[in-house]
Amino acid sequence: MYDIAIIGAGVIGASIARELSRYQLKVALLEKENDVSMGTTKANSAIIHAGYDALPNTNKGKFNALGNMMFDKICDELDVPFKRIGSYVLAFSKEEVETLKDLLKRGQDNHIPDMEIVYKEELLKREPNLNPEVVAGLFAPTAGIIGPWELTIALAENAVDNGVDLLLNHQVNDINKDEHFVLETNHGSIEAKFVINCAGVYADKIHNMIAKESFKIDAWKGQYYLLDKMKKPLLNSIMFQCPTEKGKGVLVLPTVHGNTLVGPDSEMFDDKEDVETDSDNLNFIKEKAYKTVVNLPMNQVITSFAGLRAKPSTKDFIIEEASDVKGFIDVAGIESPGLSSAPAIADYVKDMILERIDVEEKEDFNPIRKAVPHFMDLPEEEKQALIKKDPRYGRIVCRCELITEGEIVEAIHRTLGATTVDGIKRRVRPGMGRCQGGFCGAKVMEILARELDKDIKTIVKDRNESFIITGETKEAH
């Protein structure tokens, strides 16, 4: 019997699991996929928003402002890449400058610090690659960029190291309650006193298994381009265009690893598994992005991708106990700025649980988690010491990102070890560079098969059944 079962191991579920792992509680984190960070967390803009956009007196406004300020400590504890580079909302007309003034007032109401409107001459000094037709920009210095899947993997690893049971490949098919909850999964029943629903685009489906229908979640797709790394950064900060009813518009921004990200568009889809890209939408994104950077080097695109966000019918985050089912807590509709709000949401949900359960903190809780070290960033003495200890650190597997075999092996054998090609990619970045795994992918598969003692034909790209090899070419007819 678990005290708490958390459904969904995206950034919200993993954040809550880590917070609850501070206490003497038996916690299960259930995920239907074969790894954490496989839904919305895997494909988004990777921004920690300053918090000026959300309306005051909403959950979005409250948790974004609180969450933003928590990232320095969390990322330091968990060894996660995070940079406060600031963001601009750009205006290209007098009318849009008025929108900037409205956003500035909203930011002040949300207690967002040090915001200012910067006009053309100063703005182009700071960001010389911007479209010279820009009139002004609203600058929010507390905005930042992060590795969202790296954060989620780190949160889950630290939670597991502190006693949480991570149950991958556990899809919840039904929920019942008598004296306690019984979650029926594809791997049998899980019993728990409390259930926390962090199921992303499927949060309404999970809710309706046990409670009366009270909200609906629609899946909105956003598509992106990723550009290759450049000798000099194209931009120093995150660039928004003035927001519309559909969202914050097409962005151009540096990533925490030195690439440039362009997108997204915004379109509702009935299929909550549809993450395909299409040329019409990508062309739309490209044309919109040229408004921000006229000479945007789209010949440097190395990949495109799409992600889904959970848009709630309530138009705000849903963080509450179901009115008709005591002990069932929805954390649903966590669209943008959900990533930015995750630490504050986790802290709030933790307090909701502590109000209901009398429990003490663990004396031995350890908040520290160290990432796999990037070999090429280490001082020469540390490099030599690692190679002496394990010669595999001296073998480059991924030339684009300069990732060694030693890093890949360590990523496989950690607390939350990778078992797929993309699982390795998310942890230590082979395949993230210009060739997108064209040269290193086969070697990564060989290493996975060897270290996991599996037939290489059973190694998948990402989700279960995404097989890469079916047999030898000489066997084909």
Structural notes for this entry:
The protein has 477 residues and is an alpha+beta fold. The chain folds into 3 domains: 2-41 and 148-216 and 314-354, FAD/NAD(P)-binding domain (3-Layer(bba) Sandwich); 83-146 and 218-312, D-Amino Acid Oxidase, Chain A, domain 2; 375-475. The chain is built from 13 helices and 22 strands. The strands form 5 sheets. Strands 1, 2, 9, 10, 11, 12, 19 and 20 form an 8-stranded mixed beta sheet that branches. Strands 13, 15, 16, 17 and 18 form a 5-stranded antiparallel beta sheet that branches. α1 (11-20) runs parallel beside α9 and α2 packs across α9 (338-354). The longest helix is centred in the last third of the chain and has 17 residues, at 338-354. The termini are far apart. 49% of the residues are buried. The mean pLDDT is 96.
Keywords:
eight-stranded mixed beta sheet, alpha+beta, 22 strands, 3 domains, five-stranded antiparallel beta sheet, 477 residues
Radius of gyration: 23 Å
Largest sheet: 8 strands, mixed
Instruction: Give the averaged pLDDT, no decimals.
Output: 96
> So how many helices?
13
The class by helix and strand makeup works out as alpha+beta
The CATH architecture of the largest domain can be given as 2-Layer Sandwich
Overview in brief:
This protein is of the alpha+beta class and 477 residues long.
